[in-house]
């Protein structure tokens, strides 16, 4: 993990074990996904769905939430789902 955007769940320097066969987002609060937006950048985010749409958020500084539409979310490609993390060596 290159930064602190997912702390306290995932810390900077943690190694992540990811499932690259996960190509679909299941909108809940448990899973963290590695998402690629428009083939330019990799982000780690949780995805949740409510009555107003889908929410993408990181864990740092509470919940940094961004509401997104299905159209906006379609710009993201699921690279993997995080299944395990380990502390930095």
Describe this structure in words.
- The protein is 4% helix and 48% strand.
- It is built from one helix and six strands; from the N terminus they run βββββαβ.
- The protein is mostly beta strands and 89 residues long.
- The chain has one domain (15-86).
- The longest helix has 4 residues, at 70-73.
- It has a six-stranded antiparallel sheet.
- The mean pLDDT is 80.
- The chain has one helix at residues 70-73; strands spanning 15-19, 32-37, 41-50, 53-58, 64-68, 76-86.
- The two termini are 12 Å apart.
- It is globular, with a radius of gyration of 13 Å.
Neighbour order of strands in the largest sheet: 1-6-2-3-4-5
Number of strands: 6
Shape: globular
| Total DSSP helices | 1
Low-confidence parts lasting 5 or more residues at pLDDT below 50? none
Helices and strands: which structural class? mainly beta
Helix content: under 10%
Radius of gyration, in Å, reads 13 Å
Strand content: over 45%
Largest pleated sheet? 6 strands, antiparallel
Q: How many discrete domains?
A: 1
Helix and strand element order: EEEEEHE
Multimer state: single chain
Mean pLDDT: 80
The N- to C-terminal Cα distance equals 12 Å
Task: Give the secondary structure arrangement, pairings included.
Blueprint: E1 15-19, E2 32-37, E3 41-50, E4 53-58, E5 64-68, H1 70-73, E6 76-86
Antiparallel strand pairs: 1-6, 2-3, 2-6, 3-4, 4-5
Entry summary:
Helices cover 4% and strands 48% of the residues.
Keywords:
single chain; 89 residues; mainly beta; 6-stranded antiparallel β-sheet; 1 helix; 4% helix
